[in-house]
Structures are given as C-alpha cells and as structure tokens.
Amino acid sequence: MIFGVDYYPEHWDRNEWENQAKLMREGGFNTVRMGEFAWKLFEKQEGEFDFSFLDEAIEILAKEGIKTILGTPTAAPPKWLVTKYDVLLRDKYGRKREWGSRRECCSNSPDYIEKSQIIVREMAKHYKDNENVIAYQIDNEFGCHDSTRCYCEHCQKAFSKWLKAKYKNIETLNKKWGTVFWSLQYDSFDEVILPGYTSCEGTYGDRWAHNPALDLEFSRFSSDSWVKYQKMQIDILREYTSVPITHNLMGHHSSIDYYKLSDDLDFVSWDNYPDNQWGTSEYEYVSMAHEIMRGVKDKNFIVMEEQAGAAGWDIVGQTPRPGQLRLWTYQALAHGGEGMVYFRFRSALFGMEQYWHGVLDHDGVPRRRFYELQKTGRELQKLEKYFVDNKNDYDVLIEKSYDNLWAHGIKSHAKGYNYENHLYSFYKANADKNVMCAVSRGDYDKYKVVYLPAYNIVEDGKVEKLTEYVKNGGTLVLTFRSGTRGDSNEIKPIALPGVFSELAGISVDDFDAPRRPVKIKGKAEGNANIWCDIITPKTAKTIATYDSEYYKGNGAITQNEYGKGRVFYIGCDLDGKAMAELVGYINETANVNTVSAPNGVEVIRRNDCIILLNHNESEAEVDMKGYSVLNNCEFTGKLDGYGVEVLKR
Ligand code: GLA
Ligand code: ZN
C-alpha cells in the first residue's frame, strides 16, 4: 500500500537529503511524489535539460526503500517561457495573468502546449528505464487558482473551432442559442465571442450577463481544453512508459468535468485538506469529497496530498488535534482510498506556503504528527487487505452532473440556491444515518435509491434508462428545477418537471421563490426557504404539504408508484430536520440499510469489515459488537475522541 509524503528535495540543502530519506523510512513512508514544480531546474534555459538533481534524490530515496511518483512540472512555468512566448492566461477583463505564482498559463496557447510537450517528452525519455519511478502525476491541480477559463485570442480561436465541430453551421447555433434575443446573431463561427466583461455585469452583482448558451458552452469548452491538454501529456508519456498515470484532483472542485478528466487516467488521486486557513469542513463534506473522487471513475483512488499539519498560506490554520491525522487517514480509506501521501514531509522555510505545515515542522525534528503517522502506517500495513482492492456496499447513489452544475451556476433560479449545496444536503442526511452513499453517475441498477437532484439538462436516453430502473423496482428521487432544459441551456416549452412528469406522476402549475420561510408538514416537517413548487398530483400521492402562504394545503412532496418501483418528487428545499425525516422515510420505503450511531460517529460497511470513525473530540459509545482487527480483541463499544475501529464482519 502506498504510504508516502510529498517531497521537495530542491527546497533543502543537498547535505540534508540522506537524513531526510532515513527519517522517512523511519516514519514508515514508502513513496514520495516529487518534481511537479521544478520546471526551471529541469530546463534552466530553453532546450537545456538537466534532471541530475532529481536523479540523485530518487536514488537516495530508493536506497531507503522509497519509490517515486513523478510529477510533470507544467503547473509552474519558468520565467524564460513567459518572457519569450505568449503563454499567459487572460481573465474576463482581458487582463494578463502575470507570472509570479503558478498556474498562470493558458491551455490553448500553442507555445505553452509545445513547450509542455517538450519537457514532458524529455522527462519521459529520461526516466523510462528508472525502476524507482512507479507512477506519473500529470501537472498539478488543473483548475486551481481560478485557472480554467481563459479569455485570450488563442482560446477565442479554439472556441470557434470547438463550436463549429459541434454545431456544424452557424444558423444551427443561432437557433439553438436564441441569439435573436438582443440582436446577438452571428454570421460565422469566427465571430463568436467569449463571455468576457460586458454591459450588464456589475448592474446585477456577480451574475453573468451573457447568453446562457454561450456561457454554458464556454464552461464545457474550458473544461475540455484542460482534458485535452492533459491527454496530450498522457499520450507522450505512454510512448515511453507503462507505469500508471494520474492527476491530483480537488474533490468538490467543479470547473472541470472530472468524469471526462479521469477517463484518460489510470487512477484518480486527490488533495484533501479538511481544516485549513479558509475553513473547517464538516466531516460529511469531506466524506462526500472522497466519494466524488471514488465515483468519477467508480474506482478506488489514492490521496496524493493529505493534510499533515496546520495548513495556511498567510495565516496558520487550526492545528490538527492528536488523533485527527490518523482519523482522516481512515476516513479516506473507508471511502475508497487505497493509498495515502501526506503533504508535505517538512514545512517549507520560504515561499508562499511557509505556514502550510508538513509532517515535520520547520526545524525538521519529528514530533507528535510524525509519530502519529508512523503508528498509522504500521497499522495499515497489517490492514491492507481491508482497503486495497476492497469496496463499500453502496445502497444509494447521488448523481453529480457538471453540465447541470454549470447551468445552475449561470442561472441559479433563486437567491441562495446552489446546486452543490443541494447535492450535499442529500449526502449529509444519508451519511448521518450511515447509509452507504456513492456520488457518481450511471449504472443505476446497482443501487436501491438514486437521487437525481435538480437534473435540469437531460441528455438523450436518460429518461428511458431511469424508467427501466424504476420499472424494475428502483427508487428515484427528483427535485425542483428538473427536466426542462436542453443541451444549449434553452428552456423547453413544457411544464415542470418537464421530461420527468410522467415518471413523477405530477404537474407543477405554480411555484414560488418564497419571501419568508414556508412551513411544511407530513412526511417531512420543517421549513422551505429557497424554493417551493406547488404540485398537482396526477398518479402520485402527496406525502407532504405546505402549511403556510397562499398555497397552504397544496403538495410539496409526492410519491408515485411506478412499475415495481417508485419516484419521489421533492418540490422544495428542506431544512436539516425536515430533510432527515424525509430521507429516513425514503430509506424505509426502499429497504435501505441504516445504522444508528452517536452524532459525529461514522459507520462504513464493506462486505468483510466495518469501519468506525469518531469525529468527536470526546469519547463515544457505540452499540455494536465485533472483533477488532485493529486491536486484535473484542470491541468494547468505546471509541476514543478522534478514535477509529475496524471490525471484522
Ligand atoms: C495544493 C497543491 C500543493 C500545495 C497545497 C497547499 O493542494 O497541490 O502544491 O500548494 O495545496 O497549499
Ligand atoms: Zn487562453
């Protein structure tokens, strides 16, 4: 099992490397990731290649039994590149993103592409026979620092081409986009603009001012551009090596379609910082991020950067409490991780990330974080079979769609509405009942319940597929703002919930973005705050009604028996309590396994083990028996604060 650290030998005096490698070995680390920001060292001036520092580091580490994951260095362009060539990204105001940080480059810049090809090829050639290189990471965190969209001339040209390939002729585009609105018709693909700064922006806050079709297509195009850029690197590496290739993704991040991005990868890896200077994530939010990362390929992942200390750039984030690094490790593994790499081995003395603490502090002295991970690593070597190539028993699927995410971002329907929060509200309600919940897409038959929240842009064949699933006994959950948009983000001339009307057995004849909290009663009791569909049931029965406003007594949530299965339609947002009740009812109806545990205790089930995670600072008592394979004894039911258990099933 990969148990490693992110390592930057270039940040340390050469005479420290041997000792650092020894210390890593002592910590139980068997892998490092290196190289992903060292372009300038590899190519000091254009065409002058020198990998000697990395060769030496790889060698020294190998002597201690430590293997290397190699990052291609394209996320941090050297100065000569940006001085000589037109590679820098332009923001929506046309401003050049100046060099001085990282991720300043445009994925459609021909020069950036060419110079990337050259350095990647040199690297691949140089390391093709090096047996200590066990995997490649392409670049570093595509999309990070708001770098997905670029508004330069290269992107404009590439966008025109991309649109032409999709729409074939400009009349089709005009029609689909409805450019007749405000005289926005184009005479050729070359004329199509990028959705940069224009007149309405500012007047309406940060709402986009552009044609919603243009905006959505630009999101897709920008995402595709990075997918293509990544593929370019993969293809080069593949000419020289057969080691697995990954990229370090960012969990909930959503400017790039992670399904597409991960299609070309052998495995997904990702970077997890649950508690950094920008905030502390709820544990369910972190679990969901892991599930997204597992779900994009429906395959286990590794964590390429796991938080190892207090994390911040200009201020120091909260210090992980004793036990938390271990807990976060098991949390990752429980949700589909099968390898851990901690960021970073030793805290940097200089540069932007001086406060982003690693396993070791600035002085390099091993302290409690080092020893906690050392202990964790030792445990894991014994438990490997429960994690590597192992899998959870999922009952429930939440489908995440990047198209819908972007479309809802362009027109969010109501103040306070956010598609990702909407998805999370369902994940959290399920996770709090310890329901095994995947976040992915497709393959509905594997699940007892499929949540398809706010699925507004519906691709061809989707309704048929869902109908089959429900007919065969599946439970489908739909929500407000679904089923009425087409591929170009246009609204279809049909009533809500559009293409899902028959499945849901309802019509929505009126709706409200409420002025004040609206009461709901029935199978869910509480308030709606953001949206209320006023439902007329057809074949469905109403299971919750509104209890205030002019639509008091009307349907808020319905249930439609359909074939051997059923379809729930949730017409409004629900506060935490109402959501918990409704999800409880859905689970009951669909025979979903739930486990009750104290607040903050997570229970994850696999066919051969149960993993218990206590996210509370204080001890917890769990009503569960079993043999602890972690401690080789009967489980007492007691979990320490931030404690972990792995029970045999
Ligand atoms: C990201 C990057 C790393 C580093 C850490 C900490 O995840 O991939 O290079 O910047 O954040 O900030
Ligand atoms: Zn560009």
Topology, element by element:
Blueprint: E1 2-6, H1 17-27, E2 31-34, H2 39-42, H3 52-63, E3 67-71, H4 79-84, H5 110-127, E4 133-137, H6 153-167, H7 170-177, H8 212-240, E5 245-246, E6 248-249, H9 258-263, E7 269-272, E8 275-276, E9 279-280, H10 283-295, E10 301-307, H11 324-334, E11 337-343, H12 368-387, E12 396-399, H13 402-410, H14 419-431, E13 437-440, E14 449-452, H15 462-471, E15 475-479, H16 501-504, E16 506-512, E17 518-522, E18 526-528, E19 532-537, E20 541-546, E21 555-562, E22 565-570, H17 576-589, E23 601-605, E24 609-614, E25 620-621, E26 627-628, E27 633-634, E28 638-639, E29 644-648
Parallel strand pairs: 1-2, 1-11, 2-3, 3-4, 4-5, 6-7, 7-10, 10-11, 12-13, 12-14, 14-15, 15-22
Antiparallel strand pairs: 8-9, 16-19, 17-18, 17-20, 20-21, 21-22, 23-24, 24-29, 25-28, 26-27
Helix pairs in contact: 5-8, 8-13, 11-12, 14-17
The protein binds alpha-D-galactopyranose and zinc ion.
Zinc ion binds next to helix 6.
Notes on the structure:
By secondary structure, the protein is an alpha/beta fold. Among the domains are: 396-589, Rossmann fold, CATH 3.40.50.880; 601-648, Golgi alpha-mannosidase II (Immunoglobulin-like, Sandwich). Helix content is 31%, strand content 20%. The chain contains 17 helices and 29 strands. The strands form 7 sheets. It has a 9-stranded parallel beta sheet. A hairpin with a 2-residue loop joins strand 21 (555-562) and strand 22 (565-570). Helix 5 packs parallel to helix 8 (212-240). The longest helix has 29 residues, at 212-240. The chain is globular and about 75 Å long. The mean pLDDT is 97. Zinc ion binds at residues 89, 106, 108-109, 150, 152, 154-155.
